[in-house]
Each structure stands twice: as C-alpha cells, then as structure tokens.
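Protein of interest.
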Amino acid sequence: MRGKWQKAGAAAIGIALMLGSRAASAQGASSGPSVAVQETTSGAEITPEQRQELLKAGHYGVPARDEQRAFGSVPLPIPGDVFSRGASEQKTPERQKGLFPNSWHDFVNQDGFFGDPWGARTWLADHGVTVGGRYFQDTAGNPFGGKSRAVRYADEEALSLDFDLKKLTGVAFNAGTLHFLTLARQGAGLGNTLPAIDSPMEIYGAGETMRLGRLSWEMHWNNYVHTEVGEINTENDFEQSSTYWGANLYCQFQNNGICGMPQSIAMNSGYGFYPTAHPGAWIKLYPAGNDHYLVQFGAYSVDPTITGVRNGWKMNLHGATGTYLPFQLGWHQGGTDDYSGPLQTNVKIGGYWDTSEVKNVYGQMGTYYIPASAAQDAPVSKVRGRFGGWFQFDRMLQRDGADPHRGTAFFASFTWGDPRTAIAPYFVTAGITRKGTFASRPNDTISFGMKALWANPKVTHWIEHLQHTGRGAGLYAPHSEEAIELNYGYWPTRWLLLRPGLQYLWNPGAVKRYKDAMLIDLESAISF
C-alpha cells in the first residue's frame, strides 16, 4: 500500500513539474515582498511608481496581501520556505520560449527550478490556477551525547493547487479561493534515538506516507471578515509564525520545538498540526478594516488517529474524540512592506478549549520514556475538557540604512497547558534572524534560537515518590529539556536553500540520564 501511495505522489509531482509551479514555499506564495533588488531583464532602472506596482504582485500575478504577514492563512504552509515568493521588485521576465529558461540569469532568478515552461505557469495564474511544489529534507546526527550515536534523514515532497474561483469561472464577484495540498513523507527521525521530547528534525513525523494536507474554501468577504472551511490544520492560523521578508520566521530553524509552532500546544491538546488536515473552520474579524487588529475564532475536529500511515486521506469524523475551539487576538504595526515605513511588530494572545475526554497526565507518562509499570498505582483518571493559552511577540529590530532589504527580526513565545493533562505545561521559544549576512549575500540568513520545555511536576513528583519508596529502580524523574540552534541559510538561487546548522540539547528526554547532545544538521530545499 505504501508503495502505491509513493508512486501516486511521484506522479502528482510529475504533473506539477510539467505544468510548471508557482513557488516552492509556504509563506511566499501570497504574503511577502521582495528581499532584494534584482537586476531587471532590460537593465533599466525601476522608478518608485514601478516599484510599488511590482510589489503588489509577483512574477506570475499572485497578489500580496499585507494582513497575511501577521495573521494570514498561507496557501502552502510548509517549513523552510524561501523569501519573497509572492512579490518581487524584479520586472516580469520575458516569456519563457521553451522548456528551459531563456538564459542563465533567468534560471538563477526565476521563482522555481522549472521556471515558466512555454509560459504555462503565467497562463495558469492568469486563468486562476497557481501551482506550487517543492522537495525538502532534514539530515541530522549526534557525534556525541544522548543514548547512542546516529544519523537520520527525512524528506517531504509537496504539491499545492490554489484556484481563484473568480478568475476560473469568470463570475463578476469575488468567489474566494479553493486550496488543495498533498504531500509525501519518507525517512526516519533522530528524536527516538537521542531520545528527545521535541524532535530536532521538524520535517519528520505525522506518518511516513502520502497524505492530504489541505482541501478548503477560503473567502475574503470584505476588509472586515475572512473565513475558511474544509480540511485544514490549526497550525496555519492559530499560534502561527508571523511572516518577515516573505518567509515564516519560526521556520528558519530545524528544531521542531520552534518550527512551525511552539510544539507543546500539539503535545498538550487536540491542536491540528501540519501536515495533517482536519474538518474545521475559522473566522477572522478585522475591526478596523485593516491588519492592525484581529479577533479570530475556530473549530476543528480532534482526531488522535489522523497521523496514522493508513489515515493520510481520512476525511471524516470517525475516530474523532471532540472539538478543538481556539480563539486569538492580534495586534500588528508596520509599513506596507518590510523595507520601508515603521518596523513590523506583532503581538498575539490566544487560548483554547478542547472538548475531548483524555487520560490525565499520569496516563501519558510514556512521552517521557517512562515504562507503563510506573503508572500501575498512579492516580490515573479521565478528564473531559482541556484548556490552555499562549502569548507571542515578534518585531523587526532594525533595517539597514544603506540597504533596507537587510535587517534583523526577533521573536519570543510562551505557551501554557492544562496542569491536569499537559505533558509540558510550560514552554518557551525565542529566536533572532539576521537577513543579509555579507555584501555579496543579501538573501542569506544567520539564525539563533532556543526552546525550553518543563515537564509536568505531577509526573516529576510521582517518580520521585516511587524512588523514595524503593519502587523507582531504573526510573528517572523528568524535569526539563532545553535546546539551542545556530544555523546559516545559504541561497545560491531564488529556488535553492542549503542550511547547515548546529544544535545543542540539554537533558535529552527531559531527564538527567544521558549526556547532553551536540547535533550537526543540514536542511535543503528545492522549489519547483
């Protein structure tokens, strides 16, 4: 069965490549402006008026929506996304005359590896169909520390189709956008061998199979009300990363504790995370008619079985345990892009209620690699209704005066979970990304980030109780797990990413059983 899905995935990707694709990466498809001034195809200077027009749409006519930088739902929510897929200061390239780019310059600067064969990509966008695809991989190994030495590799291939129903049908009114995303994952993760509570490889997980990632209808009714309904995930719209320079700020890191959201919320509740898709809906209200203020509510099916290998295309409520009900308030300040005007600042405060009935934290101690025997006499019980909340802050710290396309952005988050059931009731992330590392590397990045997870003290006290009573032989009480990451994002072209990095992990598995681990990792991505 798995082989059939992989063949189907390869066929789907092949179709995407034949058509040509819009962009490899998530946030760029419709959310961000250009990262650097490129040479125009004609060599002429760009006037300020031309610049504003070019920033409104990308090479292939994809509009940039400013509200998506802070609060937006993006067409392809994949990690490691490239900068500025949705808008560019580079003039529209000349129509590609054949299968291959017209010149080496066009090949290096085009939005995807396959460019715009015979102009098909542009033609499709003009008629309401945008196609995206990419290959993305994580490789990581620990030369020392942890339970054992190991190297692991995992990858993902993704295909997205977005249909502008107004363009596609020719109706005179806005009919919204139909989103479709499918993907296939292969490989293995390093988290189990370390062990680690949060995987150091964010691309690994959710069933190594082909699956549906999104099938939904999104509608912008007016400047005040936006909605989406269908098969979606919560990660795209609640406790999500803001967009800087057209890119997901959290996903400048490989550690899954940071990218694509503060990981504890998925551990503590029925929060639906990428790449899974759940029946759900949300509504976003913009009281001022712009992106300055946000009031947002959602409802999603909670399905613990959705990550299973056989459930990649599950589109029903069978096996659902309840409903995840999040809300979020947002405040945004900034210019019309990240290169002029006020520096971008975002604040988000949110919370959730999960109606599912689950075991309390004593019944979930296996997450800390504690054997089931330790819970035999523990006060395990059922709890209906989990709750929690979060606070997020991010800001562009500075913009270079000599080149406003270079700058520095910072983020921090705090996530809290129901102490009765939460695996990690307290969770913190923070990071800083510098874009534009050297004079000759305007798009490269250097990023430093951290995550800290605190174990539920109920579990800690229970294991300590067993140790004090002589029943805790071989058991280690969990306390905390911390990690830092330093990486360099190298962009040799607009469609190729190479991101080597280092991670250091304290207390693998949140226990003082193994030595702290050093990880060497590499992410790479090709947008088609």
